[in-house]
């Protein structure tokens, strides 16, 4: 844990790229939290890059390809140096025409098919970091990573990434091909990776890109407005668990105000202080949210701040799983 300001660049793994100390998670530009403005999404992506962000994280199933095409529109004609931008793509989520999630498919033949479509939608010749979105129970991780390794040899992918897998799966994948980073949820409300997963990453020299650092807006006091917002189906936002968590968020808000930060800045700064070698992914979908997040860079938390905050919100304070019961069952990281 560091008392210094977050580094402006962080190395992803032993052989991966150096990236800006905040990454931009792009999922929210494609309707997961309700209706969005494409124009503001494009403006936000461009503003993030102009302020130094070099890592853009997407998934081929975000908006059934919409997210990748939005990123393409944001990058086209702007004169950005492609070598200075890293595009991370999660793949393999199968969706129905109505948007429902069906399953994952990580067979080698499917991996190469998904990559071909992502390259076309993004309008790029190579994907910087390619990662299975979830572990496929029907396909050994060795086969999936082997397919990505083939794509690397062919020049279509640069680095292997993983997402939401546990320690044993990380070891098996890394034995096939060096893994650059694991993408996993981590926040004041979701500290599970600290026990088993982060130690393995450090042992093997693998980095992490951390999403859900605001626990989908919970830590900043946001609430789902209607059923189109998938948070309305998450345990942490509803019922007795939701009411309990609101009381914790009120304490966080008071701490943030006393320290001259917004609740979002406090949540991001805590992640940066706890895991300075890893990269927080900021899910800003508007220019205002991006401005708020960037305020963290000049307001790092001290060791004393972290201790005081964790005294208010000890491990296990929040109630409710981070996904629905069906989704939790598919998380290898939770086993």
Detailed description of the structure:
- The chain has eleven helices and twelve strands.
- It is an alpha/beta fold and 335 residues long.
- An eight-stranded parallel β-barrel has the order 3-4-5-8-9-10-11-12, surrounded by five helices.
CATH class: Alpha Beta
> Would you list the SSEs in sequence order as H and E?
EEEHEHEEEHEHEHEHEHHEHHH
How does the major sheet shape up? 8 strands, parallel, barrel
- β-sheet strand percentage: 15-25%
Question: What's the gist of this structure?
Answer:
The chain has helices at residues 38-50, 66-75, 108-122, 141-153, 167-176, 197-204, 239-258, 263-274, 287-294, 303-312, 325-328, and strands at residues 9-11, 18-20, 23-25, 55-59, 86-91, 93-95, 101-104, 127-132, 157-163, 179-185, 207-211, 279-282. The chain is α/β, with parallel strands linked by helices.
Which key features would you list for this structure?
335 residues; 12 strands; TIM Barrel; NADP_OxRdtase_dom; two-stranded antiparallel ribbon; eight-stranded parallel barrel; alpha/beta; NAD(P)_OxRdtase_dom_sf
